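ok so I'm stuck.
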Amino acid sequence: MADVVRTEGLTKYYLNFWGNKAVILNDLNISISDGETFGFVGPNGAGKTTTIKLLLGLYRPSKGKAWIYDRPAGDVAVKNLIGYLPEGPYYYDFLTPEELLSFYGKLSGLDSAKIKRRSDELLEIVGLSGARKLQLRKFSKGMLQRVGLAQALISDPKLLILDEPTSGLDPLGRIEIRDLVLRLKKEGKSILYCSHLLNEVEMVCDRVAVIHKGNLLRMGTMEELLSIEGELEIVVRGFNEELLSRIKEAAVNISVLDSQEALVTVDSRIHADKVIDIIRGNDNAVLVSMADRRRSLEDLFVSIVKGGKES
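replied:
not stuck anymore, here's the structure
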């Protein structure tokens, strides 16, 4: 697939009063494929927002280059292909959602009929149809986040850049926005998704990059990053103490899930085969499933950022 976004050695630094460099982003090399949802995660101050502003042409790089649809980042020709939701968006608070979307629709070159059609559709999607004529100054932070997402989608962009899209939303609102992102993904949108809510990143993203202190520490698919090499998990139903005692010799760990099922962790295919043979040799036991053992993205993130050994 063609690259929608590509960076080579992208670097941003500032010189302080004494002429020393304060590096915000260092030698970033990433690519986002057409139709891919790409997670971009890191602690506060890691360089995520700086990267976004470089891609949008709001900042100029100190070194390196970035391209969007094979054009230099910031090129006017690709502006209408991008929808952007900043973290903590600010809009003229005397406008209503209808007026705001009309304003951004006109900036995007849409005619009045299309603006009306898209506005009605988007306000329904983000749950603001009933507040379409209410001034933004009366909106909560979560409501502003919703109207911001509608704004990012008004021109039906091919690439969405979402910086903390569920910030300020209650649990139900987060689920609704996550479902919308998954819907946009199915429609073939390319999405750069920045969030501190790592469980959401894990659910919606195809690949993820972890950045810390301006440096890219890890990048890959969810399967590549979250699978623990060599370890497998086996679920057995209908166990007894004798069976577990025999399995224990080949297992790293055994966890009883309930009165019927147990989770067996092994550290190699050889030990997995031994456990499966024991289960199949027992008339009352059933092999339910076997899969690579996975950690959560949060566990991986903490181990990488803290520089600790991955477990």
